[in-house]
Amino acid sequence: MNTMNNGAGDARSGWAALLSGRNAVYSIILAGGVTLHALNIYIVTTILPSVVGEIGGLEYYAWSTTLFVVASILGAALSSRLLDCLGPGHAYASATALFVTGALICAVAPAFPVLLAGRFVQGLGGGLLYALAYAVIRLVFPEALWSRAIGVISAMWGVSTLIGPAVGGVFAELSIWRAAFWSLVPLSVTFGMIAIAILPSGRRDKAKPSPLPLLQLALLTASVVAVSAGSVSTDPLWNGAGLAAAALLVVLLVRAELGASARLLPKGALDPRGRLVALYATIALLVAGMQTDIFVPYFLQVLHGQSPLIAGYLAALMAMGWTLGSILGAGRSGEAGIRAIRTGPIFVLGGLAVLLLFIPAPAGIGSQLMPICAGLILVGLGIGVAWPHLVTNVFKETPVSDQGLAAGSITTIQLYATAFSAAAAGMVANLGGLSNPGGAEGASSAALALFGAFLMAPAVGFVSVRRLGARWNVKVAVEAVGGR
Known about the structure:
Blueprint: H1 15-18, H2 21-55, H3 63-107, H4 112-140, H5 146-173, H6 178-198, H7 214-231, H8 236-259, H9 275-289, H10 296-304, H11 308-315, H12 317-329, H13 335-358, H14 369-397, H15 403-431, H16 439-454, H17 456-482
Helix pairs in contact: 2-4, 2-5, 2-6, 2-11, 3-4, 3-6, 3-7, 3-15, 4-5, 4-15, 5-11, 5-12, 5-14, 7-8, 7-15, 9-14, 9-15, 9-17, 10-11, 10-16, 12-14, 13-14, 13-16, 13-17, 15-16
C-alpha cells in the first residue's frame, strides 16, 4: 500500500514533532475537516428549539440528530473506498461538496421533513470528513504520534463549542435561524478549496477497491430507523415494537458480518475472546452516555430559564470536557493509558448522576447551573480521557491487511452508538412526557426518565473496561516473557 508517509521513521513523538513542518500542515487540514463537522452539530443543536418553534416537528426533534448520524455512518463506511479511488485531496473536496449541499437544503426548508432531508445529506458529507481524518492520520503520521494527532482532532470539538453555540445562539435570538445554515456555506467552500490544494491528489492504492458491505449497511441503517420510528410515539407497544425490530436487525447484522466477504469491521472485531470487541464495546457505551446532550438545550430553556445562546453554550460543556480529557490523556502510554480507559466510565456515570439530580427540578435562573455544568463536564471528561487510547489501540489490534477498515470502523461504531442512542433518547423523552403533557411539567418528567435510563450505559461500560484491562494485562505479561 502506498501510504504517502511524510516521515514514519521519525523517532520524535512529542507535540513539537506533530506541530512542526509538514506534520503541522497536515494537522491543520485534518483538524479543519473535523471542526467543520463539529461546528455544524453545535450550531444545529442550539437553533433546533427555534426551528421547531417556527416550522413545527417537536415530535421528530431527535430525528434531526438520528438521520444526520445515520448518514454519517454511511459516509464513514464509504470513506476508505473514496480515499482509495480519489486520493486525499479529491476525497475531502467531494465530502465538502455533499456537506454544502445539505446546508443549502436546510437553509431553505419550508417544513421539518425537508430539513431532515438536508440533515441527511449534511450527515453524509460530515461522516466522510470525520472518518477521513482518522484514515489520513494513519497514513501521514508515524505511530508514535497517533495518540497526539487524535488528541488534536478531539480538541477541535472544544473549539467548536466556543464558536458553534455563539453562531447558532445569535441567529436564534434574532429569529433568523436559516442564516445559521447559510453561514456554513462560504466556510465549507473555502475549506474544500484549501484541502484539494494542499493534500495529495493521487489515489492511495492502485488496487481495485474492495466491494462495499451493502447488506450490513442496510441492516445497520434499518436498525436505527426502527428505533427512531418507535421513538415518535407515546404508545409503549409501538415503542416496544421498534426496539424488538431493531434487536432483530442487529442480530441479522452480526450474522451477516461474520459470514461476509465484504466486511464493515476488521477481522476479529466480533470475536468475544478478542481485544477488539472490548475496545468497540467501550467506545459505544461511553458515546451512548453522551447522547442525553441533545435535549439539554431544551431542558435548560424550559426548566431553567436560559436563553438559546446560554443554553447552547452550557450543552457544549460535554464536548469541552471531551477535549480537555483528550489533551490531558493523549501523551500517556502503557499502563497509564489503560488506567485512562478504566477511568472513563467512572466519570461518565458520575456526571449523569449529577444531571439526574439537578436538571429535572425547575428552578430560578442560575440557581442550579453550577452542579449542572459540573455534570456536563464530567461526562465529556470521561470520554475524552479514554478516547485517544481506545482509538490508538484499535489500530494496534487490527491486522495490517485491515488497517483501512479500522479507520472507518472507529467512526462507524462511534456514530452507530450515537444514532441508536439518540433515537433511544428520543423514545425515552417522549415516553417521559416531552410532548404530552409538554411544557415545564413534560420537560421535567422527560429529563428524569432520560438521565435515569442512560445511567445504564456507563454502568455496563464497567464490564467491558474490566475485560479490556484483564486482556491487556495478559498481553503485557506475555510480551514481557517473550522479550527476555
